């Protein structure tokens, strides 16, 4: 089984971002960038399937500027075999990314595409579902368990009421949720080895898809701030405040 | 052209998030049609027809929609959508699953998780776990939108009387099959609809302790129970308890965070609550920056005392 995983370079999940003063976007200069956490889970899952001899090859794909090579190197250090980088500086949105990925899928013919369920920067939660629709493939979103069978894959999904299991015909797209696995720390030897693994660079023109953004961001603003609260000394004061000041309990 | 709302329902009745979604659709300023796709879902269709402001209801009754599989829902909605200017669904695990398929099939963008309607083509949505709000404009012929329910009031569920029209489905894709579900059974209010939420973090220490400490308080307040990611990852409670950027987004009248430090990902899911109470032994915990009332101390002592005092 050949597996394609997708990775996105995002602001590290521990960093608190700031909105630009002119409201044109988010201040990204000098921030720590990392692999999107859900994508890291996707890479880990694919590599585990390879270690179990279920997967034969794991290919990591990204789109974005030159700096995204770092993200691919992270995927390679976790254990992906090779990588594909669609190099572009334009603003990317889910539909354009899904169209580019479709072209790569048609060329590489994986049996399974594993993706993060959402990127923690734009919080869209769209690209996996869009790719599946464009390919007319089934999808298993928000996966907490992936069990490949012959010709099909069983996916346990985290849904609002609990868990749901679906069986998908292969090939399929799966998107990861938090409980799927705990990604490993790449070891130094593996980080060194990753430097020698091949990364193929592709120009978007070569894919023949239109990556242009569809949504126009008119402005980015700060969310309304909560007014600072108070610390209360004891339970009696808390209950008094909740009853008589906030009036949320009676 | 009218706007289309995809009802979330259990075949018998419509889920509360549908009511918020109708309100969002009405703000666009066009008539609102509701689609109820399910199996033996006549009573859900009647419930949709009774929602205030709804002009028409479309009902599709077919086994293909029994479990709302994304492949089938996506194909159905894409087929129907052509007669509408906007298609809206609640940003729940069902809406998030099939709506991007609809957008891709129609070759249009999706606008995820909107929190306001600025005009028929402009909407606001949170990005970076709610640490920034983007105002986005779509020039696509059909706007595919998922709606964050907590940011819109619920439409009145009973004063409408829209006609119901039965229509054909789009068939079963044959690509995916529902195998089963393990749903949490609880007599407590659903998290996204609860007026009061008692939420616990890793500081509870174990599944037993989580139950022992939080349940008496939740019982007393008729509250829903939530959790931080850390508590879910540690196995204290199932995944559907998780409040946060990638879990549930809640906005109750009262949110009591117990032993939750307040990572930005957790705050993203609860900071629109009307009143926030934080109980934590660490006076520097970030949760206190969003809490209206903070109490520093040992939760094992404070929570039982609180149960007695309420």
Structure description:
The N and C termini of chain A lie far apart (60 Å). Chain A has helices at residues 37-51, 69-78, 94-108, 127-135, 188-196, 204-207, 235-245; strands at 2-6, 9-11, 33-35, 57-64, 82-87, 112-116, 139-148, 152-159, 162-169, 172-176, 199-202, 215-221, 230-231. Chain A is an alpha/beta fold and 250 residues long. In chain A, strand 4 (57-64), helix 2 and strand 5 form a beta-alpha-beta unit. In chain B, the strands form three sheets. In chain B, strands 5-9-4-1-2-3-10 form a seven-stranded parallel β-sheet, with helices on both faces. The N and C termini of chain B lie far apart (52 Å). In chain B, helix 3 packs across helix 4 (95-106). Chain B has 310 residues and is an alpha/beta fold. The chains are: A alpha/beta (250), B alpha/beta (310).
Provide a concise account of the structure shown.
The complex is a heterodimer of chains A (250) and B (310). Chain A has helices spanning 37-51, 69-78, 94-108, 127-135, 188-196, 204-207, 235-245, and strands at residues 2-6, 9-11, 33-35, 57-64, 82-87, 112-116, 139-148, 152-159, 162-169, 172-176, 199-202, 215-221, 230-231.
Shape label of chain B: elongated
Q: What is the element string of chain B, with H for helices and E for strands?
A: EHEHEHEHEEEEEEEEHEHEHEEH
Oligomer: heterodimer
How much strand of chain A? Answer: 25-35%
Nearest-angstrom radius of gyration of chain B? 21 Å
Instruction: Please report the distance between the alpha carbons of the first and last residues of chain B.
Output: 52 Å
Radius of gyration of chain A: 21 Å
Q: How many helices of chain A in DSSP terms?
A: 7
Low-confidence stretches of chain A: none
Major beta sheet of chain B, specifics? 7 strands, parallel
């Amino acid at each position: 089984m050949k597996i394609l995983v997708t990775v996105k370079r995002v602001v590290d999940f521990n960093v608190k971002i700031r909105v630009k003063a002119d409201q044109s976007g988010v201040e990204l200069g000098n921030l720590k960038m990392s692999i999107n956490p859900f994508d890291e889970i996707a890479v880990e899952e694919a590599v585990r399937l390879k270690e179990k001899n279920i997967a034969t090859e794991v290919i990591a794909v990204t789109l974005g500027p030159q700096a995204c090579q770092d993200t691919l190197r992270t995927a390679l250090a976790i254990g992906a075999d090779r990588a594909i980088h669609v190099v572009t500086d334009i603003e990317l949105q889910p539909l354009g990314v899904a169209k580019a990925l479709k072209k790569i899928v048609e060329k590489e013919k994986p049996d399974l595409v594993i993706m993060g369920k959402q990127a923690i920067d734009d919080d869209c939660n769209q690209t996996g579902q869009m790719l599946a629709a464009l390919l007319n493939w089934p999808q298993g979103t928000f996966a907490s368990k992936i069990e490949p069978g012959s010709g099909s894959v069983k996916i346990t999904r985290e849904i609002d009421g609990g868990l749901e299991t679906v069986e998908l015909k292969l090939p399929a797209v799966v998107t990861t949720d938090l409980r799927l696995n705990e990604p490993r720390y790449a070891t130094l030897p593996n980080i060194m080895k990753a430097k020698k693994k091949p990364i193929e660079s592709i120009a978007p023109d070569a894919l023949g898809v239109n990556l242009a953004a569809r949504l126009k961001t008119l402005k980015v603003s700060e969310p309304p701030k909560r007014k600072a609260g108070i610390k209360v000394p004891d339970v009696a004061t808390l209950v008094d405040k909740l009853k008589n000041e906030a009036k949320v309990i009676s | 052209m009218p706007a289309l709302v995809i009802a979330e329902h259990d075949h018998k009745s419509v889920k509360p998030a549908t009511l918020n979604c109708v309100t969002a659709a009405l703000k666009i300023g066009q008539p609102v049609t509701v689609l109820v796709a399910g199996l033996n879902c006549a009573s859900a269709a009647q419930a949709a027809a009774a929602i205030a402001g709804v002009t028409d209801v479309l009902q599709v009754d077919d086994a293909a929609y029994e479990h709302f599989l994304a492949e089938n829902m996506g194909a159905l909605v894409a087929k129907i959508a052509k007669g509408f200017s906007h298609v809206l669904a609640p940003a729940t695990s069902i809406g998030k699953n099939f709506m991007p398929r609809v957008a891709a099939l129609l070759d249009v963008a999706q606008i995820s998780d909107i929190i306001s309607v600025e005009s028929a083509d402009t909407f606001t949505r949170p990005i970076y776990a709610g640490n920034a709000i983007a105002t986005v404009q779509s020039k696509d012929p059909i706007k595919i939108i998922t709606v964050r329910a907590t940011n819109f009031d619920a439409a009145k569920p009973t004063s409408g009387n829209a006609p119901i029209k039965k229509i054909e489905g789009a068939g079963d894709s044959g690509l995916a099959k529902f195998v089963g579900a393990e749903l949490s059974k609880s007599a407590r209010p659903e998290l996204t609809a609860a007026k009061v939420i008692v939420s616990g973090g890793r500081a509870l220490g174990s599944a037993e302790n989580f139950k022992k400490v939080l349940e008496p308080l939740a019982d007393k307040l008729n509250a829903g129970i939530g959790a931080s990611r850390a508590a879910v990852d540690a196995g204290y409670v199932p995944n559907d308890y998780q409040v946060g950027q990638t879990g549930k987004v809640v906005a109750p009248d009262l949110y009591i965070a117990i032993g939750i430090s307040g990572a930005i990902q957790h705050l993203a899911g609860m900071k629109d609550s009307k009143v926030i109470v934080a109980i934590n032994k660490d006076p520097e915990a970030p949760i206190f920056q969003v809490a209206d009332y903070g109490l520093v101390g040992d939760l094992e002592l404070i929570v039982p005392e609180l149960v007695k005092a309420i």
